[in-house]
C-alpha cells in the first residue's frame, strides 16, 4: 500500500530578536518529522519551513500562503502576539495551528492545539515556590505585549492572594536593551525577587546588566534579588554569558537535565541531528511533542481533515522527554508536569521541585483561580533537591 503523504507547515522566526529559542523549536519539530517518517510505512510527512523573522505582518502573509497551497496543519509561533495574529487566518481557512509554547492562557479556538504550558502549569507553581522560600515582594519587568501583560496580571493576583505585593511593573519594547532606569528602580525598591517576562535579546541584556550593576554595588544578586521567569531555557543561558548565567529561577515543564530513558534518547538524537545547536529547550520539546501528536492523529484518521484530526488527538497520550503528555479533550491543551529549576554554570538547570504527575491544563483558571488564597493544587510539587 502506498504511503499517504502530507505537507505540514513549520513556521518559526529563526532570525530576529528571539531567534535562539525559535531555532531550537524548529530543530525539535524537524527531529520529530525525521523520527516519525523513519518509524512509519503508512505516512510520509514533508515539513514546509518558513521564517517570518519576527515580523507580525509576515506571520499573517505566510499563514495565508501555507494554507492557500493546500496545507492544513502548521506547527509554529513562539510569541503570543504572533499566535494572535494568525488565528483568524486559520479559522477563516479552516486550518489547524499546533502551538508549541508556554503562554498566558485565556484563549480557546477550534483551530489550535496547544502543546505548551498553560498558566496553571507555570505561573501558579512559580508563585507557590517563591512565597515560602524567597519572599512575597516582587518587581515585575516584561516585554511590552500581551504575554507579559497577562502573565504579570495572573502573577499579581496569585501573589496578592498569598499575602504578597507587586511593588512595580515596567515594560520595554521587544528587542530593547536599555535597562539603566529599570534596574535603578529595582535597586531603589529592593524587592525580594524580580519576576521577568522579557523575551529574547531584551532578556539576555537584562540578566547581564542587572548582575553587573549589582556586583558593582557589592550585592549578591542571585542570593539577594533573584530573577524568576517562566520563559528562561537552556539555549538562552549561553546567550546570557558565563558571568551572569547562574542562580536564575525558571518555572517550566521540561529541563534538559531530567533523568529518564525518554529524555536521554531525545537529547542524544537531538544532539546528533543538530550538533551546532541551539541546545534543547522546553519549547523545542513542545514542538517535538506537537509533531508526534499530529503524526499519530494523522495515522489514526487516515486523512488530514482538520475536524477528523482534532477528534483523533483528543485523549491521545505520549511518553515524551518530560514524562507522560496527553491532550485534554475539553480544552485541547496538554496535560504537563510543572517543575522549578535553577540555572547553573555550564548552561544547565538543576531541578529543585517537580509535580508528582502531569496536571490538567486550566487555561481560563476556572479550577485554580489565583484570586483565592488556596494551597497548591494536587498533585503537590515534591522537592527534588534543596
- Fraction in helix: 40-55%
Please give the number of β-strands: 16
Spans where pLDDT lies below 50 across 5 or more residues: 372-379
Largest sheet: 8 strands, mixed
Query: Number of DSSP helices?
Result: 12
State the CATH superfamily name of the largest domain.
Answer: Response regulator
CATH architecture of the largest domain: 3-Layer(aba) Sandwich
SSE pattern = EHEHEHEEHEHEHEHHEHEHHHEEEEEE
Q: Kindly state the mean pLDDT as a whole number?
A: 95
Strand content: 15-25%
CATH C-level label of the largest domain: Alpha Beta
Report on this model:
The chain has 386 residues and is of the alpha/beta class. The protein folds into two domains: 4-117 and 258-335, Response regulator (Rossmann fold, 3-Layer(aba) Sandwich); 120-256 and 338-383, Response regulator (Rossmann fold). Helix content is 41%, strand content 21%. The protein has twelve helices and 16 strands. It has an eight-stranded mixed beta sheet, sandwiched between helices. A hairpin with a 3-residue loop joins strand 14 and strand 15. The protein starts with a strand and ends with a strand. Residues 372-379 have low confidence and may be disordered.
Amino acid at each position: 500500500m502506498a504511503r499517504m503523504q502530507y505537507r505540514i507547515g513549520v513556521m518559526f522566526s529563526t532570525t530576529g530578536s528571539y531567534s535562539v529559542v525559535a531555532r531550537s523549536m524548529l530543530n525539535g519539530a524537524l527531529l520529530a518529522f525525521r523520527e516519525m517518517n523513519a518509524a512509519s510505512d503508512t505516512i510520509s510527512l514533508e515539513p514546509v519551513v518558513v521564517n517570518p523573522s519576527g515580523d507580525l505582518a509576515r506571520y499573517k502573509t505566510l499563514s495565508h500562503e501555507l494554507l492557500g497551497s493546500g496545507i492544513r496543519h502548521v506547527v509554529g509561533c513562539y510569541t503570543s502576539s504572533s499566535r494572535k495574529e494568525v488565528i483568524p487566518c486559520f479559522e477563516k481557512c479552516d486550518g489547524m495551528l499546533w502551538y508549541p509554547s508556554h503562554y498566558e492562557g485565556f484563549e480557546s479556538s477550534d483551530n489550535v492545539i496547544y502543546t505548551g504550558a498553560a498558566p496553571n502549569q507555570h505561573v501558579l507553581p512559580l508563585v507557590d515556590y517563591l512565597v515560602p522560600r524567597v519572599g512575597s515582594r516582587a518587581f515585575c519587568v516584561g516585554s511590552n505585549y500581551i504575554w507579559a501583560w497577562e502573565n504579570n496580571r495572573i502573577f499579581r493576583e496569585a501573589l496578592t492572594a498569598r499575602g504578597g505585593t507587586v511593588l512595580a511593573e515596567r515594560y520595554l519594547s521587544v528587542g530593547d536593551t536599555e535597562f539603566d532606569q529599570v534596574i535603578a528602580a529595582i535597586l531603589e525598591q529592593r524587592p525580594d525577587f524580580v519576576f521577568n517576562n522579557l523575551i529574547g535579546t531584551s532578556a539576555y541584556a537584562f540578566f547581564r546588566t542587572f548582575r553587573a550593576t549589582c556586583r558593582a554595588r557589592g550585592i549578591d544578586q542571585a542570593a539577594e534579588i533573584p530573577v524568576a521567569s517562566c520563559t528562561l531555557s537552556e539555549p538562552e543561558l549561553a546567550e546570557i554569558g558565563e558571568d551572569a548565567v547562574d542562580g536564575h529561577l525558571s518555572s517550566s515543564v521540561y529541563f534538559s537535565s531530567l533523568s529518564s530513558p525518554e529524555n536521554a534518547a531525545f537529547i542524544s538524537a537531538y544532539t546528533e541531528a543538530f550538533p551546532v545547536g541551539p541546545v534543547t529547550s522546553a519549547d523545542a520539546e513542545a514542538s517535538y511533542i506537537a509533531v508526534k501528536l499530529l503524526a499519530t492523529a494523522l495515522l489514526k484518521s487516515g486523512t488530514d481533515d482538520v475536524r477528523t484530526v482534532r477528534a483523533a488527538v483528543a485523549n491521545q497520550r505520549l511518553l515524551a522527554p518530560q514524562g507522560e503528555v496527553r491532550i485534554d479533550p475539553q480544552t485541547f491543551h496538554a496535560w504537563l508536569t510543572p517543575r522549578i529549576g535553577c540555572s547553573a554554570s555550564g548552561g544547565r538547570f538543576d531541578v529543585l521541585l517537580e509535580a508528582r504527575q502531569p496536571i490538567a491544563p486550566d487555561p481560563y483558571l476556572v479550577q485554580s483561580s489565583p484570586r483565592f488564597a488556596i494551597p497548591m493544587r494536587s498533585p503537590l510539587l515534591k522537592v527534588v533537591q534543596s
